[in-house]
Amino acid sequence: MHVPAEASAPTLDEYQQRVARTYGARAANYETTPVNSDWHRRIAALLVKRAQLQPGQRVLDIATGTGLVACDAAERVGPEGDVLGIDITSAMLEQVRRKATALRLQHLHFMLADAEKLRLPLASFDHVMCCTALVLMRDVPRALAQWLTLLAPGGWLGLQTNPDTAFVTSRVVQQLAATMGIHLRLSQEVGTPERLYSLLDAAGFVDIEIHVEPDGHFLTMEQALAAGPDYEFPAPGQYPPPLRACTSMQMASLREAYEQSMRAACTPQGIWNDCTSLLARARRP
Ligand SMILES: C[S@@+](CC[C@H](N)C(=O)[O-])C[C@H]1O[C@@H](n2cnc3c(N)ncnc32)[C@H](O)[C@@H]1O
User: Fold this and answer.
1) Quick one: which H or E segment has residue 91?
2) Structure letter (DSSP) for residue 155
3) Which domains, and CATH codes, for the chain?
4) What phi and psi, each to the nearest 5 degrees, are found at residue 110?
5) Is residue 76 a contact partner of residue 108, using CB atoms and an 8 Å limit?
6) To 10 degrees, what angle do helices 90-102 and 14-26 make?
7) Buried b vs exposed e over 217-227: b needs ≥16 C-beta within 10 Å?
8) In this model, does residue 6 exceed pLDDT 80?
9) How far is the CA of 120 from the centre of ligand 1 (A)?
10) 35 contacts 60 by C-beta, under 8 angstroms
11) Rounded to the nearest whole angstrom, what is the distance from the C-alpha of residue 179 to the centroid of ligand 1?
């Protein structure tokens, strides 16, 4: 594959710089430290399996991170195929580079690039994949429409995202912030099979299938409290982080209400953290 050399690192706005800093700090431990440490690995594997990749195919992995999807895809398409992983966080790509070398995946390429402004040849991939990153896009409809143009006619998009019901800590903060008139977008735009379907349909995809994959685990109270609201509470696609608009009194009452909600949700096993995935497949006509 001819991988276009980016003349320079992509120009990132303040929101994206924050995203890149966050993932830069997580890169070395991304696959080992999350509370549910094998979750990323599991859903990436599921996404790749559902894509039914064939030897020789060309795959673009959008927001590849540490390359969980890209490495698996590269093994499946074999040396006669090609996989390109792109990401805005160089420390994440460094992890892909290490893995590609260790696994001798010479047909796995990677590039520092913004998924919302890709300068790649049109119609040049058989599959475009995106795992746990769609909500990080500032403009989801535009990103999807752009990704469609990178697929060859008949090529498939495979993506994973989470429904509104997933991630108890974020969901409770979102609900409490809404009572103060503060909007946290989180997965709202894509958070039901119907909304995800409509977005894919509007972007021009056909043969859209959405599979709901239940998943989840228990959090301890300590873990839940550690993920509670603060001024920098993560807000995919939004900048500045909306909770920065809180007064100190609002923040104090948000924290108190959050703790109460978590105590109310706590069972002898802990607090159930739904991590259901929406796995979509859709084809370029
Ligand atoms: C939750 S990680 C997902 C990584 C990988 N796809 C996986 O399933 O493990 C999100 C990744 O999206 C990347 N990202 C966020 N916004 C991006 C953008 N506009 N363009 C490219 N990568 C982006 C981040 O740097 C991070 O590596």
Assistant:
1) helix 90-102
2) E
3) 14-163+186-216+273-283 (3.40.50.150)
4) -145, 155
5) no
6) 40
7) ebbeeeebbeb
8) no
9) 18
10) no
11) 30
Determine what percent of the chain is predicted with pLDDT higher than 90.
92
Helix (H) or strand (E) holding 62: strand 58-62
For the segment 122-145, what is each residue's pLDDT rounded down to a tens digit?
999 999 999 999 999 999 999 999
| Three-state DSSP state, 162 | coil
Task: Give the closest residue to 191 by CA, choosing from 166, 208, 173.
Answer: 166
Residue type for position 266: C
**What share of the chain in percent tops pLDDT 70?**
96
Distances (CA, A) of 180 to 184, 187, 238, 243, 255: 11, 19, 17, 10, 13
Contact 10, 113 (CB under 8 A): yes
Distance 64 CA to ligand 1 centre (A): 6
Of the residues 92, 130, 142, 277, which should be mutated to test ligand 1's pocket, given the most ligand atoms within 8 Å of the CB? 92
User: 10 Å Cβ neighbour count for 41?
Assistant: 14
pLDDT in tens, 151-171: 999 999 999 999 999 999 999
pLDDT in tens, 60-102: 999 999 999 999 999 999 999 999 999 999 999 999 999 999 9
Integer CA distances (angstroms), 69 to 20, 24, 47, 186, in order: 19, 18, 8, 23
